[in-house]
Design a protein that fits this description.
Blueprint lengths: L15 H26 L6 H19 L3 H18 L11 H17 L6 H6 L16
Helix pairs in contact: 1-2, 1-4, 2-3, 3-4
Amino acid sequence: MGRYTLQRQFSAFPGGPPGSGLLILRAATGATLAAQGISFFLHPQITAVQLVAGVLLTATGVFILIGFLVPIVSLLAAVECLSMAVYGISLPHSLFGSKLAAIQAAAVFVAMALLGPGAFSLDARLFGWKEIVIPAAPHKPQE
């Protein structure tokens, strides 16, 4: 009687099949991005630009994989992929074999930024549904 609930009409972190789909999307893209970043470190003659690109790709890949700050990090990953396509910052054994593949990956990251991380993510645990209790006003008897 003394509690009122406030609820959105939609979930910011969808669960069930849509959440599972977002988890699979995050796992595939995050692992690919992290593997691309790690491959920069395995190159025998790494330049300073490749070192910075490797660190950024690995960090953003891991953040997307665990679902941490996905809307922001996904946009950063899209910029990374586009810069790899435009400036040709890649290795001979790049996972993004062509400029077109890097542009397609950037489009996937932009879509992921718009969709969000889903219920199976660190973002959902940190920023998800919280229960706010609004106490009812005390009832005054009429005189």
